[in-house]
User: Fold this.
Amino acid sequence: MREVIGKTHIVIPGDYPPHIEGSPHLDLLQPHQVTVFTDLPSSLDEQLARVGDAQVILNSRAQVTWHEEALRHLPELALIATCSIGVDNIDLPVASELGIMVCNQPGRTAPIVAEHAVALLLAVAKRAAFFTESMRAGRWERRDTVYLRGKTLGVIGAGDIGSAVVRLGQALGMEVIAWSLHPSSERAEKLGIPFVTLDQLLATADAVSIHVKLTDATYGLIGARELSLMQPGALLVNTARGPVVDAQALTSALDAGHSGGVGLDVFAAEPIDPHDPLLACEQVVLTPHCADTTPEGVDLLNSGAVDNILSFLRGEPRNVVG
Assistant:
């Protein structure tokens, strides 16, 4: 681990859209030098120029990525603190090799993200986006919607967010099942649900909600084969990471009428390409990776990132990834 001695230069390299600029939590860092950039770097060279002498990076938005080509050019960097749970935009093995610590905020906004996931599920089930666009176009179309009570909800990933979705699904009166990379009987008993295989979950559930982190094991976890296992008309929600689901296969399932509807907060490329065929699909509800972007969520993440930095500078690092 790299050490930081004396006054620390803390850089926020791309706070856009605004996340932490003006936050009262930044006042706690006043003994140190804090530099905030309120736009995104336009190139790797500009990104490196912004953080060249920084000992600490506070990554307020996931758009600023820290891959090997950047990390190896930052000999002073000791810590990357994120305003996030996910760290898939950071090359963790290289950071570890170089002695750069990475601290995230596991579970901090889990109830907020879970609420968003269930909101997407309800919006898809009730065809909210479809009916809104239809009425804006001057039509008065009536189609069946989905009554969720008594239906089966399959939760993929039973960490903090997935567990919160389990509880919300149960509150709606749904039967809940789950799949996890690391199932246990103790966890199943605590949540009051059974763990099943992924294939069983997909074949059984009327609605599926995804809550796994993006890793080599989960990249493309839901592809054409998995989507074909889902019941005709089943609903799918993804608030995890876009690449967990094969976007082309998902669009094909929607176009073929096999999927009953999809709610997405995350995409393979962000912002989504305005010509992405997914945008032309009828039964989709889309939000721009904003599941925890509520005033409460932003404040929690800002305070958590600052707390992680202060703990690190005291020599008591916490929430260390890896």
